[in-house]
């Protein structure tokens, strides 16, 4: 089987394709890279993998105190801790995918310059690795949820609806947007390093501009909701929260747009990535 | 099997494109207005800031052949391998490879310092294209080859550099592709391991794999390769048996050496405060310059230099090393081996190396020159020049020894006990 394969190397190879077969052949590499990402991130730290859950927790506590208690921003009737924790987990996954993917070329220039493998594996492995990080976060969230549900009066309003079934789909949408936009940006970071530096900052800005993360969409007046709809993360975050906690504004049109947009962004991102990976090693 | 047709690769020198977004916009606007580019200057003219690393290279490699690729530094060998490894695209031409390809351009690609040897094996193996099942199967073999033993579960950052390269090479050596592209990775590890690596390469070669092997080690090339190609300035200048091609390489290097006076040679390390300017071999007694030396002749080598330092240089150690025609090192005359260091005054001067009974056999030898001061290299030129040696009566017995290959004569005696 192997010896029948013929590799043709020529200039300007076509970029309008997704290397399905190669990605499948290198699936072991994907697994190993995910493992590596997960294992090495918090190695030699006292708290180790708990850090995956602690990071969003710390942001949540800050938000709860400053936004919930001091600024008294409404939280859709939910206890602020749960509200912010859910939102932070959602945003955390999306922004991690985005930032990690956007610097693919720059941060892997040594690896890419020495050996060939389908380079899409790298952003894919980041997205999958961050997914694994969900688990400690989910556990912590579950702990909080149990407390609020059974030990506080607010608990009656916390409902887990059958909409919880859509959670995997929402996660996939987030990954698609994160990786898709990341791929678009990676094309630029391959050439202009300064964009890597502003990614963290831009992502923060985007977070504040997304109703649904720092403040609920219900705060935005009805006439402006369509503007917000352009931001796919808003719809996704609200839907996620609704499914998990029973309080969120589900905007169907925005969700559909987010879904369709995800396909488009991801596909176009992959094609652009293909086009760039051909020659970036000479110019990065 | 590999077929390369007219492969070419052009690189652009200097700052590639614009360094920042702002410059790109400026360039684009200037282009629209048809105004001269804001950062244009004479060097931007085409041809001035581009270089053809490969130019129209064509060759074929049959199944099971081991092809050596040799050439001076910058000839395009690594570029050729990079293109065939699909790391970079060619500018023109094409190549067809049939079979699974594995490239070994560097050992330890992807090794992560925090992961253990075992984890890195799987990572490195997967990066090189091995499936997990394959690595499982060969696990013990690889560990044994690397001589890592009980360190396999320690993080790699704790390994000595020798262990690191041994493990890296061991993983790569157990790849089983149909085509292997190897770039000078044999020069790792200590001597014992190097021998092991070459042995492994021989096994791979005999196993019917097609191998492309880039190296500066002419002995390895002649030993492992049936055929070799010589690249010079990006072009293929010779394609033939390994022995023929190595000879062509040696001839071209010697031609270069002969054409350029020592003082202006740029392929040296150092040469700023101290610069060798010439070497003349003379007969020790008559001081007459020699074109050809004779084995056993008392000779001196007068090494002229130019000391450009403002102050005299103290404790300078100088050495002349002799190599066989294929570059293999034979012997060196280091002044610190006999306890001599020199004080060089500013300006030109000459150091004389006396070699009684020149102990080298017939043939052409190249020599290196080096001077250093307390471990810091002042000037170092490899293949600084060459000497021709005629067969002579080294042992004073009236018989002229005729060894099969270039060698060093040593004093000895035989007797019956």
Structure description:
The complex is a heterodimer of chains A (284) and B (417). Chain A is 67% helix and 1% strand. Chain A is mainly alpha-helical and 284 residues long. Chain A has one domain (47-282). The longest helix of chain A has 26 residues, at 252-277. By secondary structure, chain B is α/β, with parallel strands linked by helices. Chain B starts with a strand and ends in a 27-residue tail after the last strand. Chain B is globular and about 70 Å long. In chain B, strand 6, helix 6 (191-206) and strand 7 (210-214) form a beta-alpha-beta unit. The interface between A and B is large, with 39 and 44 residues. Strand 1 (6-9) of chain A pairs antiparallel with strand 4 (92-98) of chain B, so a sheet runs across the interface.
Poorly predicted runs of 5 or more residues of chain B? 36-46
Count of individual beta strands of chain A = 1
Average pLDDT of chain A, to the nearest integer? 82
- Give, in order, the helices and strands of chain B: EHEEHEEHHHEHEHEEHEEEEEEEEEE
Rg of chain B, rounded, reads 26 Å
Q: Measured on Cα atoms, how large is the radius of gyration of chain A?
A: 20 Å
Structure classification of chain B: alpha/beta
Beta-strand residue percentage of chain B: 25-35%
User: How many beta-strand elements of chain B?
Assistant: 19
The count of helical stretches of chain A stands at 14
> Uncertain runs of chain A with pLDDT below 50, 5 residues or more?
none
Percent range of helical residues of chain A: 55-70%
Task: Tell me the quaternary state.
Answer: heterodimer
**Largest interface by Cβ-Cβ < 8 Å:** A-B, 39 and 44 residues
């Amino acid at each position: 089987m192997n010896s029948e394969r013929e590799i043709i190397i020529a200039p300007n190879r076509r970029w309008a394709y997704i290397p399905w077969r190669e990605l499948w052949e290198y699936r072991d590499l994907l697994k190993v890279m995910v493992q590596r990402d997960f294992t090495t991130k918090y190695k030699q730290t006292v708290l180790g993998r708990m850090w995956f859950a602690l990071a969003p927790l710390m942001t949540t506590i800050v938000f709860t105190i400053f936004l919930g208690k001091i600024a008294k921003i409404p939280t859709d009737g939910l206890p602020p801790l749960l509200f912010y924790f859910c939102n932070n987990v959602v945003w955390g996954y999306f922004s991690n995918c985005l930032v990690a993917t956007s610097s693919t070329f720059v941060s892997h220039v040594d690896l890419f310059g020495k050996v060939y493998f389908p380079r899409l594996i790298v952003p894919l492995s980041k997205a999958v690795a961050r997914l694994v990080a969900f688990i400690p976060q989910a556990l912590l969230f579950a702990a909080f949820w149990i407390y609020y549900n059974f030990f506080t009066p607010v608990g009656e309003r916390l409902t887990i609806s059958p909409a919880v079934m859509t959670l995997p789909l929402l996660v996939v949408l987030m990954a698609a947007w994160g990786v898709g936009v990341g791929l678009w940006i990676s094309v630029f970071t391959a050439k202009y390093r300064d964009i890597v530096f502003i990614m963290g900052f831009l992502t923060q800005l985007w977070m504040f501009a997304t109703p649904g993360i720092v403040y609920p969409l219900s705060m935005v007046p009805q006439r402006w909701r369509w503007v917000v709809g352009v931001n796919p993360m808003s719809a996704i975050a609200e839907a996620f929260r609704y499914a998990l906690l029973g309080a969120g504004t589900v905007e169907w049109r925005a969700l559909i747009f987010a879904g369709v947009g995800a396909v488009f962004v991801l596909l176009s991102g992959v094609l652009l990535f293909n086009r760039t990976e051909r020659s970036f090693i000479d110019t990065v | 099997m590999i077929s390369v047709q007219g492969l070419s690769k052009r690189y652009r020198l200097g700052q590639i494109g614009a360094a920042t977004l702002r410059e790109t916009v400026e360039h684009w606007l200037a282009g629209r207005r048809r105004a001269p580019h804001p950062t244009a200057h004479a060097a931007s003219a085409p041809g001035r800031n581009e270089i053809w690393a490969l130019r129209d290279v064509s060759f074929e490699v049959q199944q099971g052949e081991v092809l050596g690729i040799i050439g001076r530094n910058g000839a395009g060998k690594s570029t050729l391998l990079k293109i065939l490894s699909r790391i970079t695209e060619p500018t023109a031409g094409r190549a067809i490879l049939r079979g699974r390809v594995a490239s070994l351009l560097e050992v330890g690609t992807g090794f992560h310092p925090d992961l253990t040897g075992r984890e890195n094996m799987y990572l490195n193996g997967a990066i090189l294209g091995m499936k997990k099942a394959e690595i499982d199967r060969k696990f013990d073999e690889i560990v044994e080859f690397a001589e890592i033993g009980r360190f396999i579960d320690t993080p790699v950052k704790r390994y000595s550099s020798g262990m690191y390269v041994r493990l890296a090479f061991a993983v790569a050596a157990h790849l089983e592709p149909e085509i292997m592209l190897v770039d000078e990775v044999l020069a790792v590890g200590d001597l014992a391991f190097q021998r092991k690596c070459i042995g492994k390469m021989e096994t791979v070669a005999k196993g019917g794999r097609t191998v492309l092997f880039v190296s500066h080690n002419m002995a390895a090339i002649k030993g492992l390769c049936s055929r070799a190609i010589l690249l010079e300035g990006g072009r293929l200048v010779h394609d033939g048996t390994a022995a023929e091609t190595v000879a062509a390489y040696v001839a071209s290097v010697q031609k270069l050496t002969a054409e350029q006076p020592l003082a202006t040679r740029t392929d040296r390390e150092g040469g700023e405060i101290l610069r060798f300017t010439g070497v003349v071999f003379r007969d020790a007694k008559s001081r007459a310059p020699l074109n050809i030396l004779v084995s056993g002749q008392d000779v001196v080598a007068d090494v002229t230099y130019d000391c450009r330092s403002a102050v005299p240089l103290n404790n300078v150690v100088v050495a002349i090393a002799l190599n066989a025609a294929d570059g293999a090192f034979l012997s060196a005359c280091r002044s610190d081996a006999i306890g001599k260091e020199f004080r060089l005054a500013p300006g030109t001067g000459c150091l004389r190396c006396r070699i009684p009974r020149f102990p080298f056999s017939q043939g052409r030898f190249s020599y290196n020159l080096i001077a250093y001061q307390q471990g810091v290299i002042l000037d170092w030129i490899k293949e600084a020049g060459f000497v021709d040696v005629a067969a002579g009566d080294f042992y004073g017995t009236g018989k002229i020894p005729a060894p099969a290959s270039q060698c060093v004569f040593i004093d000895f005696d035989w007797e019956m006990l």
